[in-house]
Amino acid sequence: MREFPDIERFLLLMKETSALKNGTEAPRNAGGEIVFDNVHFSYPSRPGEETLKGLSIAIQPGKMTAIVGDSGAGKSTITKLLMRLYDPAAGSISVGGQELRTMDIKQLHDQIAIVPQNPELFNCSMADNIAYGVDGGMADKNAVIEAAKLANCHGFISKFRSGYDTFVGARGAQISAGQKQRIAIARAAMRQPQLMILDEATSSLDVENERVVQEALERVMKGRTTLVIAHRLCTIKNADEIICMKDGRMVERGTHEELIGARGAYYALVRNQLVEQAAPSAERDSTSPTSIASLQRQTSASM
Questions:
Q1: Would you report the helix, strand and coil content of the chain in percent, each value rounded to 5?
Q2: Are 171 and 129 in contact (CB under 8 A)?
């Protein structure tokens, strides 16, 4: 029991049943078009305080779509509703033309892979942590290695004396943050998902680790419907479409170049990030036409 201080809470949680009514249909096309139609939502802990206020968006299949916006804009709420952790108070959500409420939740989750900001690794081997991405956690060693290569982690795993049998420690304490993230990407690749969700997947990494992890993500995302929740806007320049959120609504959508050219909400987000990184003198002059043009050039160069 000393090794599992939360075991009692875990056992209690395992007895909990969901308040959501499960659907009975298998997902027909979990990688198809995702449509939010006039969706309203408030968290149960904050009744009456709407997080999404009549959101209507369409996310194209086989493409990378980035969701950006200030804190509290509703970005992560979109992914929670898509995973059907909650149901909207009003409006509808469909995937591949199929109403989300009609789907069996477990079968839906089987078609989705998530790479979060802080992935949870278990105190077992590298191979076991990667294989955890498949049902039952049992996978062929060759499949594990292929997933590791795809996720840019075969190289560093091979350098350990025990290779894929190396234990990562509790919560991955024996490896770096960038290595943990790549193990999580390999785990996602093992699932062969139709839909990928990246929730701030590189925001806690330094620049070098971010570059390596971003390369791994791009290989795994290729050809899959991918939804990216992004804080570091430099990571989503190549997105097929960017949706900019504000106060629970979509205010802009388009490519990076289109939105920068429009000089609207997305441009303001990018400019603010650059200003935060700039010298105090740049911050003082950030509203001048010359400075804004300079920031736009910096945006293109840095992204």
A1: 45, 20, 35
A2: no
Amino acid at 238: N
Amino acid (1-letter code) at residue 67: I
Tell me how far apart the alpha carbons of residues 286 and 274 are, in angstroms, rounded to a whole number. Answer: 10
Question: Residue 288, class by beta-carbon neighbours within 10 Å (0-12 exposed, 13-18 middle, 19+ buried)?
Answer: exposed
Q: Which residues is 66 bridged to in the sheet? A: 228, 242
Query: What is the DSSP secondary structure assignment for residue 19, as one 8-state letter?
Result: S
Query: Using CB atoms within 10 A of its CB, is residue 28 exposed (0-12), middle (13-18) or buried (19+)?
Result: exposed
For residue 126, give the nearest of 90, 83, 158, 78 by alpha carbon: 158
Residue 93 contacts residue 178 (beta carbons within 8 Å):
no
The string of pLDDT tens digits covering residues 190-203 is 888 999 998 876 66
Which CATH superfamily groups domain 25-111+228-253? P-loop containing nucleotide triphosphate hydrolases (3.40.50.300)
Q: What is the pLDDT of residues 196-238, one digit of tens each?
A: 998 876 666 667 677 777 778 888 888 899 999 987 787 788 8
- Model-level pTM? 0.81
Structure tokens belonging to residue 243? 């949706």
DSSP code string of 173-196: TTS-HHHHHHHHHHHHHHT--SEE
* Distance from C-alpha of 209 to C-alpha of 207, rounded to nearest angstrom: 6
Spatial contact of 190 and 135, defined as CB atoms under 8 Å apart: no
pLDDT digits (tens, 9 = 90+) for 44-59: 988 889 999 999 999 9
In whole angstroms, how large is the CA radius of gyration of the chain?
21
- Parse the chain into domains and list their residue ranges: 25-111+228-253, 255-303
Q: Which amino acid is located at 112 in the chain?
A: I
